[in-house]
Amino acid sequence: MKMRKVVPFLALSMLVTACSGGNGGSDSKASESGKANEPQNREPVELVFSSELGKTPEDFEKEIGDPIRKKFPWITVKYIERGKGSNLEDLVTAGTTPDIFWYVYNRYPNLIQGLGLEYDMSDLIKKNKYDTSRLDPASLKALDQYTGGKGIYGLPFVASTSVMYYNKDVFDKFGTAYPTDGMTWDEVYDLAKKMTREIDGTKYRGLSTFHGYLLRENPYGLRPLDPVTGKASLNTEEWKKLYQNLMRIYQIPGNNRPNSRSTNPELQAFAKEQTIAMAVINNDLNHVKLIPQGMNWDVVSMPTFADKPKIADQPSPWMYSIMKTSQHKEAAFEVLSYLTSDEFFMTESKRGVRTPTTNDQIKKAFGSDSPLMGGKNVGAYYYNQSAPTPSSGGAPELMSLIPTGADAVVNNKLLDVILEGKDINTALREGDEEINKLIEGLKKK
Fold first, then answer.
1. Is the separation of the CB atoms in 258 and 275 below 8 Å?
2. Would you tell me how many other CB atoms lie within 10 Å of the CB of residue 174?
3. Beta strands 45-51 and 100-104: pairing type?
4. Would you give the end-to-end CA distance of the chain in angstroms?
5. Which strands, in side-by-side order, build the sheet including 45-51?
6. CB of 20 within 8 A of CB of 354?
7. What is the pLDDT of residues 361-389, one digit of tens each?
8. Which residue has the higher pLDDT, 303 or 273?
9. Is the separation of the CB atoms in 327 and 186 below 8 Å?
10. Angle, CA 212 vertex, CA 210 and CA 218 arms, to 5°
11. What is the pTM of this model?
């Protein structure tokens, strides 16, 4: 079975993200004082960064490049911005593969494995006494489902999860109490029914969701294919429960989403038109930036299922990986140790980046330096626990089908239900058939 090299379908989770980095570190003293007291006559090294995620050169310099140069003056930092002719595949073809690449974890099978760039950092972690216990276990293990848990091929630096944003002005208009942390999906569903109404000639919807993300990072650790049997596993009672929960929200009279499979109208309605009372969105500093200045909003924890109290979704971490082709792996790991240190995480947390930290002080500092987060219920971002990330015994080629096709099938079948009225059982059965066809196609490669 040869590795399938395809461009993954990215469920347009809603917005284009461009969060910046933060990362773990070495043992406590090495990670906090870093290498600041080391002699500065180190051998000069150039490290090249690249990413599939949009970040302007100006933002890279401010958020990553300049801090590295200050910490490691002997290191020259170069950034290759994503664009025509400079995507990772283009760089590999041109023989200019970067030393460090960052990406959303579910892109690993295509962008790293598919190009033969995977590199196990386990030996460097051991040699440098890097303390992985400082990182959220679920985020650290996010790649296990693609690697089988054999080694550490990436370090998380952003820990994306879902929260529920709400428009306080809409609640005030209806004279309804605001949502609170710790609500269940049943409670939020009941509140959404109350908030879906027309007033002064304007139609308001009670609740919207980034359903593709919620299905992919579900709290039950479900995957659309079974790595043991090598078959689709969508047509089950657990998947049916997830579909039913989302379906009922959009079946509230007046609350169905626009007849479009794009997420853009949903964003428009909440952030610009301001006609959605609540929206369950994966957190991201750039999502917050898109909320117009002056909008009276706040945030509470993501709703949870009654049988999964205080368990939110699986994390969707952003990862740093050292490329196998790098000639400067030691220096690259030294830099990543800093970018994932408590020192760096604290800076990132203060500006509103949710880091994969286990340090309560860093969590409490979240958003404290951000004018966007002033006065907001920032505790909501860490209120719930992350759901465990499923590990895998499946072949990497098989597991690569999840982000490169199966996840899209899962979301599209839900859209068939909420937009076209398709029966859930039929949608799940068809989803299994489509995923099995993807698996059979892979076997023929």
1. no
2. 15
3. parallel
4. 7
5. 75-80, 45-51, 100-104, 316-322, 155-160
6. no
7. 999 999 999 988 889 999 999 999 999 88
8. 303
9. no
10. 95
11. 0.86
